[in-house]
Write a structure and sequence with these properties.
The complex is a heterodimer. By secondary structure, chain A is an alpha+beta fold. Chain A is built from 7 helices and 18 strands. Chain B is an all-alpha fold. Chain B is globular. The chains are: A alpha+beta, B mainly alpha. Chain A: This is Protein fecR.
Amino acid sequence: MASAARPDDATKRRALAEAAEWFAEWQADELSPAQRERWQAWLEASDTHHWAWQQVEGVSRRFTANLDESERQTAGSVIRSARQQRRGRWHLLSGFSSLAIAAVLAGLSWQWTPLPQWVAYWSADYRTATGDITRIELEDGTQVWLSSASALDVDYDHQRRRLQLVAGEVLVVTGDDPERPLYVDTRSARLTPLGTRFSVRQRQADELLAVFDGAVAIHTHGDADHASQRQVVDAGQQASYSANGISELTSADGSRAAWANGVLLAESMSLATFVSELSQHHHGRLEVDPAVANLTLLGAFPLNDLERTLHMVETTLPVRVRQVMPWWIKIEAAEPAVQ
Amino acid sequence: MGNDRLAETTAYYTGCRDSLGQLYYHHQPWLQQLLSRRLGCGESAADLAQDAFVRLLQTPRHLDSFDGARAYLSRMAKGLCVDYWRRLDIERAWQEALAARAEVHLPSAEHQQIIIETLCEIDHMLARLPEKVATAFLASQLHGKPYRQIAEELGVSERMVKKYMAQAMLQCALIEAGFEASL
């Protein structure tokens, strides 16, 4: 490029600074004829000004040339997310116990989230970053625990109480209000709880409702091919559902609610499932070697202390935890024991 | 280091293949080890070390001594690691964004490469800017938002947005013009 520096560097830098000022003017508004004349005069005052303006145009092109409209929209969030990731990592480089810091838009749980949902997430009334668990108490005494990377809208008026799960998972303990019914709307159904404690989680293909006290009625929205369905789920039961319908009821997994206390409860849980649950609460990549994915775990593990959790896994199973990159952890088979 | 005495009198010019060969011979294993420690991955370290020498060939430099060369290479290694991580971040965020809109038509693999390249360039240009300045610039250049809207979103005045824009553009233009390289 302009390495053959005839005009000295200071002159060029000054010209670039002026060009940048003009650029900011251009972006602000239509320039007035007078301004336009001044800009023209500035441009023609020297070759260096011309050169500087070309650099500005070059930069501008980089933002648009290879990207179509929808890609530009995505590009903005990709870059912001990468920047946030990076800020999180400066803490990380000193050791991986702090994997769960920094709010990052893109956690693993986002992989299935349709793009407009990002907007919904950021504009939701309550949201948690990856690794955070928050408890909210609403005006009617309803308590909600928001799991990692989750978002919830609260919409109460004098006729009804409506919660909208925007992303992730919530555990709800309903408060009493005989006047106003409580609904929880999820992507594919309306849930009507009746004095109860339950959790609901949005997953890639479906949603999982587990009821611990009382009962919850699922009312799926249905879609063009599937009629809407209704099902009451009683305490101790769980069901998965989507727009397609509602699965058979199975017994509720009590450990599903343990995250509200910051604990991951594994009762004969496969290592693969364990890691996928754990991933919901941590940034970075957690990977398990298929060779050990089917080993089963039993125990209570702290969700907010990844280093300790992984160490516990290492001591209970014949595996070793390897940190491939500062943000990438892999669990693989331990070296065969030396005799 | 047994070759210290000899090393003191060593100077390199990286635009000349022989001299670059010397540099490679004296410093490549050290550089690769340094990168490997920083990245925790031997394979990427070998690639990055290779990159470093390719860059030195493309943009020749005089390195006046053995120690001078090490100092320069070590600064270069730092820059390479930063670029490498930056690129991984972008690739990862891009993959996530793609997965998020799974049902929509996906760009071809080649086109995705071009997009990722573009994103890396943009990311690189904005890397040193404060958050609000970068956010304002992205909002304007990628999303075509007017200053008024950006000002509202960031909670600053329109005047301030204009300042941010000039600041961001200057930083980008300096890089575009080759005044500020990745080192």
